[in-house]
Structures are given as structure tokens and as C-alpha cells.
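Last lecture ended with a question: if I hand you only a sequence, what can you say about the shape of the protein? Today we answer it with a concrete record. The protein is Glycosyltransferase family 25 protein. Below, first the input exactly as provided, then the predicted structure, then a couple of comments.
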Amino acid sequence: MTENKMLRVPRNYLLYLCVVAVFGVCWLWLSRIVPRARVPAVGTQNNGASFERWEKEIRNETLGFQKILCINLPERTDRFDAMRLAATASDMDLYFVDGIRGEMVSDRVLPLGAEKVLLSLGQRGKWRAHMDALLAVVQENLTTALIVEDDVDWDVRIKSQLVQFARGASVLTQPLRGSRPGFADPSFPNPNTKVEADSSQFEIDMADAPETVVPSDSPYGDSWDVLWLGHCGTKFPEAGSWPSTPLGRAVFRNDDTVPQTQHLGAYSHLAFEYSTDELQQTYPNHTRVVHHAAGTSCSLAYAVNQRSARRLLYELGLKKLNAQFDLMLSQYCDGKDGRQYHNCLTVQPALIKSHQPAGLKSSLSDVSTDDDDGMVLSDPFTNHIRVSTRINLSRLLEGTPTLVDSFPDDEPPTNFDT
Ligand SMILES: *[C@@H]1O[C@H](CO)[C@@H](O)[C@H](O)[C@H]1NC(C)=O
Ligand SMILES: *[C@@H]1O[C@H](CO)[C@@H](O)[C@H](O)[C@H]1NC(C)=O
Ligand SMILES: *[C@@H]1O[C@H](CO)[C@@H](O)[C@H](O)[C@H]1NC(C)=O
Ligand SMILES: CC(=O)N[C@H]1CO[C@H](CO)[C@@H](O)[C@@H]1O
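The predicted structure:
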């Protein structure tokens, strides 16, 4: 009897141990898998850095950059005043950099190649002004800066749009968290791994995005060179034409700050504006996509960091001048025309666009003046920006609660050409 009992106890005990061990393993496994799948990317802890902290900084007066530099020709006091007020209305802090008239830029200071490029006076001035802005970033040793031109506009909700942009940028360029190695975009950082057969693997639906490591250097990620937030148009890269550019797209659906597709056209009086056809045809209404820049035009607003400011100053200021400034910036991003590829992120529709005040059309630009003279624009206009800061400026300054949506849902496209 006693012998039996003594034999049976350890056997039960072993069984009990087995059951506990199996439960334990299951529990460990579940606790590793389940939270990783369910916890949203926003707000997770990582090495003391959290996305909440970054989100707070994106909403600060300099939009999560160390400074915002605004290029303004001193004689364009109209634009200086308007930008100053619009920034105040958005609780933003601008630091002005003097623009340069083309006449002031002599042939002697232009880099190699300039003799073959016919830059207009306006384009010469623009080139020098952007070089000066980049120089300021280098001289002041700024970690990051957003450089904007002085005729731009943005939605009154720009800060939450930038929080969204930062999430997209992180998903595209920050490593995945947990034990899964690599990146959410299989073509980043090495686009040689592009698998052309199945393009869906480059689409990341941000409603169900994997968790990525919270950036440590900037709210927008640790590996970007340029964030091209304001442009006249950009393309979704494809493997054939953009061999160095990763294909990932961070897709935000149901973003009601995006105008419906019937409003996303390009307007004939906007010389450099190009169409968003691909966005319109590929995605449903109210979709915004963060992706790698490809063939981007107009340098309305772009962020740089210390490293990229130095490289840009060297590349476009000293080494070679072979086009107008924004096209060279695009070459720098795309790795084309003898320049190396760099990691540039952008967004469609753009978050910052050029604003056209009511009045003489020739006041629109310092760059092209030829055919606009004498034409009057009766209403102020900013393409693709729904609740425009510039258009609603006096309401914002008066504190009027209702603001005007320039592109209401379910309405036919506004005809701004008349
Ligand atoms: C805003 O946040 C950025 C990024 O952390 C920081 O560099 C900058 O100094 C902040 N700006 C202000 C005005 O606090
Ligand atoms: C520039 O800033 C970085 C970090 O922000 C710092 O480590 C470096 O010493 C600074 N360089 C100079 C010359 O001040
Ligand atoms: C977007 O909404 C408008 C107006 O309701 C509609 O005419 C259009 O077909 C929609 N576009 C898409 C891509 O669903
Ligand atoms: C489009 C539009 O109507 N915008 C308005 C924004 O607010 C100002 C000031 O009240 C109006 O003059 C604009 O018409």
C-alpha cells in the first residue's frame, strides 16, 4: 500500500507539471503574438521614446522640425505679411530667409554646367535663395528644418495631417518591431528585392499597419533625407522607371481632409501643376498616400536634416547645376541625371500647396511673368486644400467658428478657371 502510494504521487505530480508546462508555453506564446497583432503602432514604448512624445512635438510651433525657414524676397512685403499672419493663425513659428533677385546672381558664382542651362532670372534667384536656406541649416547646425516658399497655404488641420504623415513615414522606413526582422515594405531599403508579380505587398493599409520601432532622431523617422510635403505633383514609383526607389505605399483611407476625386484635377492656370490621375483612378474617395518621391516638381515645402542639407548644398550649390532648383532636388531624390539616390518621402495629395490670392495674376509668381500680365483672379484659390488657412485667414483671426471648405463632398468640381 505505502509503496503504491509512494509510486503514484510522483506520477501525478509529473502529469501536473506537464500540464502546467504546456499551459505556460501556450500562455507565453499567446502573450507574445496577440498583443503584437492588436496594439496599434501609435503610443508604444521603445527605448524611452514613444510616439506620443513625438506627436506632441509634431504639434509644436515648428511642426516637429527644429526650425521652419521661409524664403521671402524682401520687396514682397505682401507675401511676408500674409505668411506671418497665416503662421500666427496656425500657431506656427517662421524664420524668414531673404530671397535673392536673379540679377544679383552673376555667372561667376554658378556651378559647373550652368552655362548649358538657360535659367530665367527668376530661376537663378530661386536657386540662390534655396542655397542660402540650406546654408542657414548648415551654419546654425540645425538637426532638421522645413524650408517653405512664401506663397504657400495649408489646411487648418495641418498638425494632425503631419502626425498621420509621420506614422506613414515610420511604417515605410523604420524597422519592424518584435521578432520579425526587416521592414514592412519588402522593397525597402534594398529595392533589388522588388517582386514585380504582386504589387499588393507594397501597399500598407494604415488601418491595420504593423508596429515599427519608434524613431529616435526625428518624429518622422531616422533615415530620411528629404520630406517633400509641398509639391505641384509627384508619381508613384514603379520598378522599371525608378530602379533605386522603394515601392512602399502607406495608404490612409477615410481621411476627410482629402477632397473627393472630382476635385483633384489640375487647373490650366497652374503652369507646373500636374495631375493626380493615378491617385484618382487607383484609390477611393478620401484616400491619402505617403510614399517615396518619384519625379516630384516644385519646391514649395520640403524638410531636410543636417546631413542632407550639407549634401544638397554640395550637390546643387557647388558640384553641378544642370536644371532649375526643384528639378535638381528631384534628381537628388530619384538618383537620376548623374546624381545618387536619396531617401525622400512625399505624400499625395500634397499637404502644402501654392496659394493664389485674388487680384492680378502677375502677382502670383516671381519666376514666370510672361503671359499672366493684366489677368485678374476674382477668387483666392488653393488647389487640393479643403479648409485653407489663407482663404479663411480673416475668419481665423476673428475667431469665427465656421470655416469654409473649398471642396465640399458630393459637389461637382469647382471651376476655378473662369
Ligand atoms: C519642436 O519639436 C522639434 C522636434 O523634436 C524640436 O527640435 C523643436 O525644437 C521643437 N520646437 C519648439 C518651438 O519647441
Ligand atoms: C551640431 O549639433 C550636433 C547635435 O545636434 C552636435 O553633436 C555637434 O557637436 C554640433 N556641432 C557643432 C559644430 O556645434
Ligand atoms: C467620389 O465621390 C463623388 C461624389 O459623391 C463620386 O461622384 C465619385 O464617383 C467618387 N469617386 C470614387 C472613386 O468613388
Ligand atoms: C472660400 C471662402 O468663402 N472663404 C472665406 C474664408 O473667410 C473669409 C473671411 O470671412 C471670407 O472672406 C472668405 O470668403
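Comments.
1. The pocket of 2-acetamido-2-deoxy-beta-D-glucopyranose (ligand 3) is lined by residues 260-262, 284-285, 410 (CB under 6 Å).
2. Confidence is low (pLDDT under 50) at residues 1-7, 32-47, 367-373.
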